[in-house]
Amino acid sequence: MIECRPRAAPKPSLFWSRGTELLTNSSRVRVTPDGILWIHNISRADEGKYTCFAENYLGKANSTGHLSVRDATKITLAPSNADINQGENVTLQCHASHDPTMDLTFTWTLNGVPLDLEDSAGPYHRVEGKENIGDLLIVSAQLNQAGIYTCTAQTVVDSASASAKLVVRGPPGPPGGLLVKNVAETSVELRWSRGYDNHSPIGKYVIMARSSLSSQWKKMRTDPENIEGNAESARVMGLMPWMDYEFQVIASNILGSGEPSMPSHTIRTQQAAPTVAPSGLGGGGGDRNELIITWTPMAREYQNGDSFGYILEFRKKGTSPWRVVRIPHVESSRYVHYNDSLTPYSPFEVKIKAYNRRGEGPFSQIAVVHSAEEEPTVGPSSINATALTAFEIQVSWEPVQQLSANGILRGYEIRYWRQHEREAAADRVRTAGLETTARVSGLRPSTRYHVAVLAYNSAGTGPPSPRTTVTTRKPPPNRPPSNVSWKAEGSLVVVRWDRVKAMHNESAVLGYKVLYKHEGQTALKVVDKTKTSVNLPLPKDNGYVVLEIRSWGEGGDGPAHEIIVSRDSGTGMMVQNKGSSTLFRRPLQLLTGSLLLTLVSLSGL
């Protein structure tokens, strides 16, 4: 269509020519009365100059233009319909031909909405190729990417389009319209409507529920046990009475499980009598003339109804009638029975059950609980105390008879105090069990102590035993061995020291102890008081040995003199004497052990 709209008055006559040829109406060419030239089914043969002539009785005018014809844009390979599973990749092809003098571009739309092909992180990507190829790659297709894809090949003068349908199959959509009906004590009925199957038939449904006690969804037992895909109702079993629940339904097919339905409205199951007994039944202890019974309060999921409480029954073992007590508090966990005539540590049979508005539950198994204990009525006998060192004694005694303990004998308490102190200020040590000997440490040297032993149970201590006395030994010399030296002899090192002499107020030296520490292992060597040397193995390579030398005797061990012996990379030896802060050397050579270098640095050398 080429327009010719001259300005003239009166209205001019119009006609067209191509070159020198006057154009007349034909099957392909038509000139309208208002001067518009129409050329149908155009081809390259129609190229050329076209002139519009206009004239009236006042004059003439003309205008010439040039018509260029280009090759039409055509889709040579249109995209094909595709059917894929969710998560798969798919390529939609689109090839086109066009006039080579013009640029060609491809665009894609999904259901008429243009796609962003420039986002490298998005699901849509151009397939790199020749200019006339505009294939579309869809990565990890999702359900919402199904629809009609249209490819458009476009130049500045025309365009061509072709479309294809993409079907994405996936797990079903969420069921809808979930209703809860016919609520009973331990079951409810659910009804729902089918969701979209996403082109793969629904195979089954799963019912999920959560109670007010938990935020976790849990798969529920149903009737029928397996809910087929053509069902839209089921009865949920195994619920707890008097409990708040929400429900969800999940559909699945061969491609997986879909999103759950919206949660149902919250319902509360009907009340029922308790079905389990309280646990943890026991007791004991307390004050004189008391019987204390304890249990674990029932959790909310086992109460089954309101107006909840406990029924406790107890009787003295060997008697017939049960004493019944109702305890109308769900949080209660103990009951105290007081009776002036209760004998200490008497056995009682007890049992307990729960009740609520709908009835009573089963009794627990019978437990035996003892009334409160009383302190033991007799004390140990034959007390003996022996000094082990200047700081420690050993005490022994004859045990009391269990029947005199007025309960369960827990152990013994040792009381000890210095001769000039009052017994009320005595220090105390308890045994954890029924041992009849014990050591008491942390005492003062050369000190006379009084010692007594008492039996005890949960009610307290009994009367003390007859007291005995013991005197701790003199303290050991408070000086470590001095003038410590060493000498390497082959694979051994000989360590020597001066003899330690005891003062008049110190215990005699009976010998010496040498503690040998090497590579995490420890060995103790004890020598007679007549010896003042010891042979020890040298460390291999660049290792080191820590030695502690101390005197010992009846009063215990004296303070230690510590040295570190280390071999260097040659034949030299090195000793750090910690006791006197003096460093002894053999002929000095280059030291290669990093730990040894650290010791030298610490010594300030």
Please tell me about this protein's structure:
This is Contactin 2. It holds the Pfam family I-set. InterPro entries: FN3_dom, FN3_sf, Ig-like_dom, Ig-like_dom_sf, Ig-like_fold, Ig_I-set, Ig_sub, Ig_sub2. It contains one helix and 52 strands. It has 605 residues and is mainly β. The N and C termini lie far apart (108 Å).
Summed up, the helix count is 1
Broad shape: elongated
Largest sheet: 7 strands, antiparallel
Count of DSSP strands:
52
Rg: 53 Å
Q: Which class do the helix and strand fractions yield?
A: mainly beta
Spans where pLDDT lies below 50 across 5 or more residues: 579-605
- Average pLDDT, rounded to a whole number, is 89
InterPro entries: FN3_dom, FN3_sf, Ig-like_dom, Ig-like_dom_sf, Ig-like_fold, Ig_I-set, Ig_sub, Ig_sub2
Pfam families: fn3, I-set, Ig_3
Subcellular location: Cell membrane
Keywords: Cell adhesion, Cell membrane, Disulfide bond, Glycoprotein, Immunoglobulin domain, Membrane, Repeat, Signal
